[in-house]
Amino acid sequence: MASFLASRILSPLILSTLTSLACRADMEPSRWRMENLSGKWYCAGFENSLDLSGIAAANREHCLIGSDESFYVQPGVIDYGKQRIESRRPIALPIVSGDREKAEIDIEGVCYSPESQAYFVVGSHGVSKKKGDVDPERHAVHRLGVDSQSKEVKPGEIRRSSLLPWLQTTPQLAAHLNQPLQQNGLNIEGLTCVGETLYFGLRSPNKNGRAFVIELEASELFDGTPRELKVHGIDLGKARGIRELVAVKGGFVIVTGNASAEATKKFPETLAPGPDQQFDLLFWDGLNPTPEMIGTLPENPGKAEGLLVLDDADAHIDLLVLYDSLPGGMPVSVRLHR
Fold first, then answer.
1. Exposure winner among 96, 231, 315, 319, fewest CB in 10 A?
2. Minimal CA–CA distance to 108: which of 20, 210, 190, 184?
3. What pLDDT does 21 receive?
4. How many domains does the structure of the chain reveal?
């Protein structure tokens, strides 16, 4: 009986590991090596510090952090010497419901475009994981203009748009709108940019082992007419999804985790193969559908959700990883040797 119970307890973890190994087997041999750096970074004074889900920096001093449980973003000041990011006063984002007490934009990605002199912030565009509620606040992308000198956000230069009209005209993704994350419902979790082109990483859907990145010009999103989106398919393996991505020299670094969410009372059936506790780093050149495996992040009780590029050199990339569900994001720094 004891061995039977042990197998029942361990089976989700074994399934998750086997799925990840199968994903790795399909990828190109890696030329990368990941090194865990010894420094201990700390995010100080941020509200909803257990739910930090996105980060981007305008320079080596000023950054912006988002939480998936709030309707505002929080500027931060970076101190590389002390390895500390200290919060500043939160900035409220425009909402359409009018009820800020109940508003939840479900912020999942933040990026900064030097060409646009602006941050961009994206909501999940999905439904709530527990009850499947459809909330228009989640269907938002915000543009926050910054001062060209101080790099501080200008509160009067915040615009709101939505990917929803574009998603509705994209057959590859439209069927997954307003569906639960447990059953391949559409959910955005990553955002980065190259110049003024935005790249949105989708946690879900995963179709036959392939996850998706959406590419769209920022100017078109905020001033253009909705059309079918440009969608990149990336071979991650069965049940794996994009949890964050950042642009680096030559391509993108992607964090992957479970595509589906854990089962709930409302949605007792899930496509997730096991616990959401393994997060892999991959390199994608933006063209080849098969990315390169870099390595697996150190295991802890949190979920890897935010990436900040600390250094993008010819020989290596230094990244700061923020974890949802851990106090202050419990940042971990890693060096990726090219």
1. 315
2. 190
3. 47
4. 1
